[in-house]
Amino acid sequence: MSCEISGRAALDLEDIFDYTLAEFGLDQAVTYLSAFDDVFARLSDNPKIGRERSGIKKGLHSVIDGEHVVFYRMIKTDVRIVRILHGIRDLPRMF
């Protein structure tokens, strides 16, 4: 499967980068953001590793990466990353 990032998830990644840059510097921001590439690759290889989250929204799945939760859907031959949110947030409310 291929992995596709939604527009909203791309904005989430920008927010994560900006926050990490401000708090921890450029090197850490780049390192932290590039770690998501590993998550996306794992999901492409095995999209069923995530937890079903139909209680939030039908067809939604998630995996945890550090302090963030990556929400995605399986659509035919693609994994679509829907949101990337900090685990401390009210996750159902974000949808």
Poorly predicted regions are none
- Given helix and strand content, the structural type is alpha+beta
Query: Could you describe the largest sheet, including whether it forms a barrel?
Result: 5 strands, mixed
Quick one: overall form? globular
Number of helices: 2
Instruction: Give the strand line-up of the largest sheet.
Output: 1-5-4-3-2
Following the backbone from N to C, one meets helices and strands in this order, namely: EHHEEEE
Helix content bin: 40-55%
What's the average pLDDT?
92
Strand percent estimate: 25-35%
Q: Give me the count of strands.
A: 5
- Radius of gyration from the alpha-carbon trace, in angstroms: 13 Å
Q: Report, as a whole number of angstroms, the end-to-end distance.
A: 25 Å
How does this structure look, described?
It is a single chain. This protein has 95 residues and is an alpha+beta fold. The chain is built from 2 helices and 5 strands, in the order βααββββ. Helix content is 40%, strand content 31%. A 5-stranded mixed beta sheet has the order 1-5-4-3-2. A hairpin with a 7-residue loop joins β2 (51-52) and β3 (60-65). The two termini are 25 Å apart.
